[in-house]
Amino acid sequence: MSAEALLLALRQSLGELAVLTDERDLEPYCHDWRHMFKGRPLCALLPRNTEQVAAAVRLCAAAGYSVVPQGGNTGLSGGATPDDSGRQVVLSLARMNAIRHIDVVGETIEVEAGCVLQTAQEAVAEQGLLLPISLAAEGSARIGGIVSTNAGGTNVLRYGMARARVMGLEVVIADGQVINGLRSLRKDNAGYDWKQWFIGTEGTLGIVTAAVLQLAPMPRYRVTALLAVASAQHSLAVLCAARRAIGETLTGFELMSGAALELVARHQQLRLPLTDSAWYVLLEASSSLPGLREATESLLGDLLEQEMATDGVVAESERQEAELWALRESITEAEGKEGRSIKHDVSVPISAIPAFLAQADQAVQQAFPEARINAFGHAGDGNIHYNVIVAPGVDAAALNRLVHDVVCSFGGSISAEHGIGQYRVSEMVRCRAPAELEIARRVKHALDPHNFLNPGKVLPLQ
């Protein structure tokens, strides 16, 4: 089938306005959020329902055009960006944005893939419930992309990655078949848990069109505190003490270097309410029961008395909470204003964080003496954003290999929450064991034998 014939068939199936071919209309679908990758698809499709997704997949497959699913296009690894061959079609789920059902008793939400995360959060909040996936891009990230990338965020410590929230999925697979597993069962041991095949696989095995997500009660009380600590090792002592003192109420535990917050102060004009320190911890706890503030303040007093922390403050209002979180959330933007940076989204065992940071710093500074380290992240779950500010001519691939080698020496992962996409494919192949890659290839071949769905992402082109 020619390109013209495919476009005609798609317009007849989806409607004239659902098939975009004009260069200006296509532009937002052609590049990733960071503008690292840019492609040129034949067209972009905007289906309105699952049946149209399935029809589009069947037509593209018959014509020999691969499909690149796209949600909010907020990913950081180029996982939703087409190539420049003109033989790919972007399939956007943006129009499939309905909230189908909220079950207040069962604490679940059934939602279409194109629904923006923040929209879903606000809808369940009206029912006194919480959708506890929290991302910087929650105002534009869509549910299908969140599921397909197994997104993380600041609440993973307590509520888990996106995978932990998924109870059921509706998926269109490579032959255009719709698999409806939109069950809201907390217990279901009837055979393979096939939904797991589509969570975190970035649209390479199937296109998520809807999901049932598990909610949580909305906490009535929240406490946010910022602490200064002398070292990363001291931050782990704080983490252990916090777990003992306030236990399951601990929602977030962010580690930020003094260098990171110096960038924020300089470029974002945000005031740090503590004395200068090598490291800082941003701690958040939430509960439905009273007494949380008193327990957290008591914890802070003990930490200062035992010299695990050198300074600290507890937010006294929602405004102060927002100001403390703004310090953390502004790091990436401040880093961008400082100059070129090479980013690493890595994870190591929590207890290994201090040793990883020390070894990575030593390796980077030895190989790239002019480089500056900007390290921060979700230390409560072992995820560190190990970013390196470098001069324009520095070889990014060489720096990536160096950092990732240190990560792997600790049994860590080169992608904690941002996915592989196309950005990290070569490093994935280099760092993963051959047996792990082989079993991934077998699953891909079984579900998508012609490498038709999002080719070149997660696994290399064969």
Which properties best describe this structure?
single chain, 462 residues, alpha+beta, Uridine Diphospho-n-acetylenolpyruvylglucosamine Reductase, domain 2, Uridine Diphospho-n-acetylenolpyruvylglucosamine Reductase, domain 3, Alpha-Beta Plaits, 4 domains, 8-stranded antiparallel beta sheet, 15 helices, 19 strands
Describe the model.
The protein folds into four domains: 3-92, Uridine Diphospho-n-acetylenolpyruvylglucosamine Reductase, domain 2 (2-Layer Sandwich), CATH 3.30.43.10; 99-217, Uridine Diphospho-n-acetylenolpyruvylglucosamine Reductase, domain 3, CATH 3.30.465.10; 221-332, Alpha-Beta Plaits (2-Layer Sandwich); 339-431, 2-Layer Sandwich (Alpha-Beta Plaits), CATH 3.30.70. The chain has 462 residues and is an alpha+beta fold. The mean pLDDT is 96. The two termini are 24 Å apart. 34% of the residues lie in helices and 21% in strands. Strand 8 (166-172) and strand 9 (178-181) form a beta hairpin. This is FAD-binding oxidoreductase.
